[in-house]
Design brief:
single chain, about 240 residues, mainly beta, Hemopexin, 3 helices, globular, repeat, disulfide bond, secreted
Length: about 240
């Protein structure tokens, strides 16, 4: 048994304070607030009618993103929070963490160098840091350089090594230069042109362990960017121990 620390803290910098140690030694008392981040709700959402079931074989996700070493899987007004510190994913209402964010989001991605996650719905997007929605948002997606014909983003992820963000819309994708803060010329391109085998509608995507994971309905494709091919087809909720 161990206490669960519910701040979105970089695991590489995670440590126990002396107060935490004392609490553990006195029969696992309530954890004290972390100095590294804001305190967030500690209780998972109890099951309700219409609530998505974690291991439903037909489960799909609206968006997936990393956040400070954790992975968030969004569905309708809920999200699962997957951490390497706990075996069982937490399940929460989006509004408990970010009251001003909408439900049913379209896309999300983390820019680790900025300690921000960008959330998209319709023609607007928000920036969050931990459980704080940053001032100055929402903004219009066209400020990123999309043409006026684009009304929404289907999926997105940011490659931390290449410092490029990829936006997927229907069967095409755009690439955004995070250093220059502008769309790269020569886009959009067909998704299958640079991601062979990804020929399904992309609902969500994120990067982990050097691979790209494309979600489409209840399935996900594990894509190796070096070999430029799909190497596994998995269930979408395999990340949730299903």
């Amino acid at each position: 048994m161990y206490p669960v620390y519910n701040t979105f803290t970089d695991l590489a910098r995670f440590h126990l304070s002396q107060d935490d140690v004392n609490g553990i030694q006195s029969l696992y008392g309530p954890p004290t607030a972390s100095r590294d981040g804001p305190v967030v709700p500690t209780e998972s959402v109890p099951p309700e009618p219409g609530t998505p079931a974690t291991c439903d074989p037909a489960l799909s996700f609206d968006a997936v993103s990393t956040l400070r070493g954790e992975t968030l899987f969004f569905k309708d007004r809920h999200f699962w929070r997957k951490s390497s510190r706990t075996f069982v994913p937490e399940f929460h209402l989006i509004s408990l963490f970010w009251p001003s964010l909408p439900s049913g989001i379209d896309a999300a991605y983390e820019v680790i160098s900025k300690d921000r996650v960008f959330i998209f719905k319709g023609n607007q997007f928000w920036a969050i840091r931990a459980n704080e929605v940053l001032a100055g948002y929402p903004r219009n997606i066209h400020t990123l350089g999309f043409p006026s014909t684009i009304r929404k983003i289907d999926a997105a992820f940011s490659d931390k090594e290449r410092k490029k963000t990829y936006f997927f819309v229907e069967d095409k994708y755009w690439r955004f230069d995070e250093k220059r803060q502008s769309m790269e010329p020569g886009f959009p391109k067909q998704i299958v042109e640079d991601f062979p085998g990804v020929d399904l509608e992309v609902d969500a995507v994120f990067e982990a362990f050097g691979f790209y994971y494309f979600f489409s309905g209840s399935s996900q494709l594990e894509f190796d960017p070096n070999a430029k091919k799909v190497i596994h087809v998995l269930k979408s909720n395999s990340w949730l121990n299903c």
